[in-house]
Amino acid sequence: MLSEENNQILTRVGPGTLMGDLLRRYWTPALLSMELPGPDCVPVRVRLLGENLVAFRDTEGKVGLVAENCPHRGASLYFGRNEECGLRCPYHGWKFDTEGTCVDMPSEPADSTFKYKVKLTSYPVHESGGIVWAYLGPRETMTPFRDFGTDSLPEEKVYARKQLARCNWVQTMEGNLDSAHISWLHQFNGVADLPDDGTDKPGYPSNAMAWKFWAHDRAPRLEVHDTWYGYRYAAIRTTPNGNTNVRITEYCVPYSTVVASNPFTTRQLMVVPIDDENCWRYNFTTQVDLNPNGYGGENLFAVSPFETPFRNPGSGITPREYTAENDYLIDREDQRTSTFSGIRDFVSQDFMVTESMGPIYDRTKEHLATTDKAVIRMRNILLKAAKGLPDGGQPPALAGPDHDFRKIRSAEKNLEPGEDWRILGTDDDPVVQEAMLAAANRPPTTPNTPA
Amino acid sequence: MLSEENNQILTRVGPGTLMGDLLRRYWTPALLSMELPGPDCVPVRVRLLGENLVAFRDTEGKVGLVAENCPHRGASLYFGRNEECGLRCPYHGWKFDTEGTCVDMPSEPADSTFKYKVKLTSYPVHESGGIVWAYLGPRETMTPFRDFGTDSLPEEKVYARKQLARCNWVQTMEGNLDSAHISWLHQFNGVADLPDDGTDKPGYPSNAMAWKFWAHDRAPRLEVHDTWYGYRYAAIRTTPNGNTNVRITEYCVPYSTVVASNPFTTRQLMVVPIDDENCWRYNFTTQVDLNPNGYGGENLFAVSPFETPFRNPGSGITPREYTAENDYLIDREDQRTSTFSGIRDFVSQDFMVTESMGPIYDRTKEHLATTDKAVIRMRNILLKAAKGLPDGGQPPALAGPDHDFRKIRSAEKNLEPGEDWRILGTDDDPVVQEAMLAAANRPPTTPNTPA
Amino acid sequence: MLSEENNQILTRVGPGTLMGDLLRRYWTPALLSMELPGPDCVPVRVRLLGENLVAFRDTEGKVGLVAENCPHRGASLYFGRNEECGLRCPYHGWKFDTEGTCVDMPSEPADSTFKYKVKLTSYPVHESGGIVWAYLGPRETMTPFRDFGTDSLPEEKVYARKQLARCNWVQTMEGNLDSAHISWLHQFNGVADLPDDGTDKPGYPSNAMAWKFWAHDRAPRLEVHDTWYGYRYAAIRTTPNGNTNVRITEYCVPYSTVVASNPFTTRQLMVVPIDDENCWRYNFTTQVDLNPNGYGGENLFAVSPFETPFRNPGSGITPREYTAENDYLIDREDQRTSTFSGIRDFVSQDFMVTESMGPIYDRTKEHLATTDKAVIRMRNILLKAAKGLPDGGQPPALAGPDHDFRKIRSAEKNLEPGEDWRILGTDDDPVVQEAMLAAANRPPTTPNTPA
Question: Quick check: A70 pLDDT over 50?
């Protein structure tokens, strides 16, 4: 349970709010690269942390992320002309480059110096992994881009998508950091009866067995282990054969998770606040060389009746057929006889629970249990960091010499006798070491050119 | 005219408001029984007095009316699984019975006692007359169900419907307690010219003659008579032949009316606040044995060009074709030549005037006249009761040994010389006595089993 | 840049606001005469300065403009019966004439005097030039109607239209007082290359040459000249042949402009606030005898690819196909290759820039330049007048013996050597004198009968 005050601090992200100020200290996904398909293409409206922005790709391919409204008299630059390395306002032709510098003010006398006094708000961007990242904080506190492994990702391995969630970002985060609900919300009939395929033993179970374990032990024990980037936590279950299955999920401050996968993965899931009541769920590949199968859960859906969450829409924005307005197309007969939720789309099951909490859930009414340990820890980290900011506190998990964000890896395994789950997925894990060795011996691919 | 303060007190119904607290002291229609057609059926969203609730019928047929959001992390229980005598949350499988008791918390360790500490808000319900009634007030002030005659109603005589009004409940109530407007809003051409069918004399006029009287004397005199349950009032008109016609309407605190009928009726019309800006109009039969024709106004519409208000939709919720958005389908040619309002649906004529006052009418701007006596009296009773509550005042018209709500009966008649209208419809009225005698001699029918 | 406080004062128009009080001192277009096509026609909802009103034309043709809600119990008089010189409430038949006097209260006893105590809010109206004008201020400060030349306009020359703008009225005003943007927003390809048709010399250029001048000199110099009615300002451009082109636009307090035209015009453009976030753009003819071609810009669109703004819809309300919801149908290919804005409708180009500033633009964020001189002057005049009102300040530009609003005329010309632009369009301008003489010698036409 949170106090009303803490709930407000936790959830509000606009300019000048405590959490908004904290989030602005991190490089943040702003839009997908594919939304700006080429030089001088059509500008795109971007709403981020409660700010209305416009993104455009200039003649040289550079991306600008600027305030939507022209600093002159406020016309929307979304309707502007994207031409000759700048965005020109449709009202009086004032033109700004990607840095927000006014490079032409042709409605004023030729000798006017006024253009040097006018600046369009512009945020630094960095394109990496199919995503345009931006830094919305004060320039004097800007730290380097956090590379989760996208900077060296070969072009053909880039995969990034986003999907709209119509609720506060923290609700979506809390769902991502909740390993217990897969035993409930996402379940379907017959899973507990799946035949033992021989992988219910120490080591790496098949995905089918993983489903079986979740259905078998529906009250996982959670252990949270603090790290420099946030924490990793294990959801621990006993398998039908009495083995100890652990699913490790990573949390990197402020909004990033790597969901447990087999044997390990670095695939990122990030929850980016649009404003207080909406957020984007980004998911994208990183370091595919380490984990050639990409998302560990590819086969996850092979045994389930659900639609796969990672469809491949042309726009990069996965559409929503299942919404609050249509009750997520819940099928009560399906709910009675086939699936726990009655909802056929896996991710929409998550939307159903997180959005039905309301736009901003009132956490004074909640009753947290032992499976909410990771949720509680995330809140405490965020609240402490946000409240410490006005006193000069340094936000956690910023880029720094000792911070290699590519090493944040989730994992899933049936433990060997005496094995410590905290090793899994780390550099000390033999499976990871083997993968790194294999990657080093693989012929190099052409990396992305970081912007 | 009301002060702004009194208008706020009168109209606001949310938790913690004066009027909201008063209304919570009464058993209130929450939904129709037919909305929960059988054991383990689909749950139903209910919004009542500004609270979001879910109703469900469990495996044994018992109805639960509970808070919509799970006390764990707030997912909507509307999407829950209604199974094995309880509603199970779709997120983590926590399960609650109709009392709100957590009967299963399977995501927690088997030996956890946490489930005994978690309670889902649940309100007592009582099913009667095709309606699920609920008590939303504090348990310590709960009084018995007020039986308006539905508890003993035979199954085949049960009739209950509801229709949505998109305005504050008091506006709808005031329309129901306003006998004058039938001479105007609901009129149509040619009524005054209807031939005298011989019933314009002391006694019970035909429905056609009733229409004729309303059209003939369009400025009725109102007399209000206070009673233990609220009041009854008479609208008194002089007929073309010089007789005195009275229409008696009952008001039972807080939101119930019995509209004048011939010779008398107990048919209820209740106005139940959904929130401050919406309400349900419930209407339902009671004590049909006393009044075999049910609603006295069945023939009322035979002489009128209007659609009958009591259609019989399968869902129990009468749909609205005539809305503010379509100007209530007003036909100006019809208004000029045929009907006073230009609106062909009788009840929609009421919606047009009450909804067009705005979501919450500003009563500082009104100018009340002599025909508003009953309206004023209702407000005074409600305001006095609501304001007295914090000082321990006892709300009027609660269940009690001397309070037989079945005796609340409206009536309509042309008075005999010297006859007192206050007798009509009461136990002292010979017509009522005769009906009671006939009912007593009729073979018994199987009553509903009260829950 | 404005302070937040001044921005609020400038933009808010509801009852009791400073600017709302100022605007209520002027006769204001309320609706088009053609919206009330004949005696006893259907009433019309009017929202004006944040007030909900109803307009009706009575049996004798007189127009009433009254509060929407009946003073009795608030039912909307829009649904009322417009009959026998009054509007009758649909609820209880109370009837009001165009003055708001209760002329019938038939639901009350025949000898009741209550009707003399009840008054429906009614505003004085004056029909002129196809427009129903109203005065919404206090009666004691009412001044005569300001005749811009419509009172004597022959019936067949009356032309008045309105179109909805979904933004604060000041944004629309500022667009109308901004001669610079025609060199940008409204431009299209090839204009600068139009052949010299011989009118790029001192005197009156052709419309094609005017377009050429705007495209040639895209940074006009603005000069503002204060007048008794507000101001007139000139946008001064150098033509390809080195001549000095001036476009003079008139501003009459509070919301009226006459846009520069060739040789001169009195055609009015008025921006009438519906409420804080919506306004009507009225445009109408005046004194056609002086300027037989009516709107000077008839040929303006002959050389452009744009749709003409002055379409002739039956209702008088020009519909909007180009809206914020459809991004004003912007065609990015058209924007790249043909027009500056990519929007094919001339007026919708204006809507795009003024509406995309948001419902009420935050002027603390703007950066005004030399082309905004006229915009700044308008704001200063309005703010000074509004702030002075509580201290008894007299609003400018009210009707008075020395104030002939028919003399407010815009003009456009290439200046003769030594010519002062301040003379153009005034009584001292030979072209105007010639037109007045011609008008005086023309046979008289039947003027409108002012109401």
Answer: yes
Same domain (yes/no): A212, A99 = no
Residue B160 CA to residue B32 CA, distance in Å, equals 7
- B242's CB contacts (< 8 A; 6+ apart) are none
Tell me the pLDDT tens digit for each residue of A6-38. 999 999 999 999 999 999 999 999 999 999 999
**Which domain, by its residues, includes A163?**
155-441
C-beta atoms of C112 and B369 within 8 A: yes
Chain C residues whose C-beta sits inside 8 Å of any chain A C-beta = 174, 180-181, 183-185, 218-219, 221, 327-328, 330, 332, 335-336, 340-342, 349, 352-354, 356-358, 361-363, 365-372, 375
Is there a domain that residue C18 lies in? no
Residue-level pLDDT at C289: 64
What are the residues whose beta carbons fall under 8 Å from the beta carbon of B59, sequence distance 6 or more?
A: B39, B40, B83, B84, B85
Cβ-based contacts of C352 with chain A (< 8 Å): 75-76, 79, 90
What does the pLDDT look like over A393-417, one tens digit per residue? Answer: 999 999 999 999 999 999 999 999 9
Low-confidence ranges of chain B (pLDDT < 70): 289, 291-302, 308-313, 443-451
Domain limit, last residue, from B134, B163, B184: B134
CA-based nearest distance A178→chain B, Å:
10
Nearest CB among C73, C76, C90 relative to B340 is that of C90
What is the pTM (predicted TM-score) of this model? 0.94
Q: How many domains does chain A have?
A: 2
In this complex, the residue of B69, B107, B117 whose CB is nearest that of residue A371 is B107
Residues of chain C with pLDDT under 70: 289, 291-302, 308-313, 443-451
Using CB atoms, pick whichever of A72, A90, A118 lies closest to residue C352.
A90
Sign of CA dihedral B421, B423, B426, B432: negative
pLDDT of res. C202: 98
Interface partners of C (3+ CB pairs, < 8 Å)?
A, B
Residue B130 sits in the same domain as residue B159: no
Report whether B125 contacts B63 (CB < 8 A).
Answer: yes
Q: Is A101 inside any structural domain? A: yes
What per-residue confidence (pLDDT) applies to A100? 98
Last residue of a domain, one of B103, B134, B165: B134
Please indicate, yes or no, whether residues B167 and B95 belong to a single structural domain of this protein: no
Asked if residue A17 belongs to a domain, the reply is no
Residues C120 and C163 in one domain: no
In this complex, do C78 and B356 lie within 8 Å of one another by their Cβ atoms?
yes
pLDDT of residue B157: 85
Q: Which amino acid is at A250?
A: E
- A20 located within any domain: no
Q: Which chains does A contact via 3+ CB–CB distances below 8 A?
A: B, C
Residues A101 and A198 in one domain: no
Match 């909406």 to its residue by tokens.
Answer: A278
Lowest pLDDT segment from A94-98, A147-151, A444-448, B366-370: A444-448
> If you count DSSP H runs as helices and E runs as strands, how many of each does chain A have, helices first?
8, 20
Contact C27, C133 (CB under 8 A): yes
Q: Between chains, do C353 and A42 touch, taking CB under 8 Å as contact?
A: no
Complex ipTM tops 0.90? yes
Q: What is the pLDDT of residues A87-111, one digit of tens each?
A: 999 999 999 999 999 999 999 999 9
Between B and C, how many residue pairs show a Cβ–Cβ distance under 8 A?
A: 96
Q: Is A281 left (phi over 0), alpha (psi -120 to 50) or beta?
A: beta
Q: Report residue A167 as tokens.
A: 């609720």
In B, minimum Cα distance to C82 occurs at B336
Query: Do C65 and C103 lie in a common domain?
Result: yes
Distance CA B384, CA B381 (A): 5
Domain co-membership, B297 together with B214: yes
Contact B151, B450 (CB under 8 A): yes
Same-domain status, C48 and C109: yes
Domain of C77, CATH number, reads 2.102.10.10
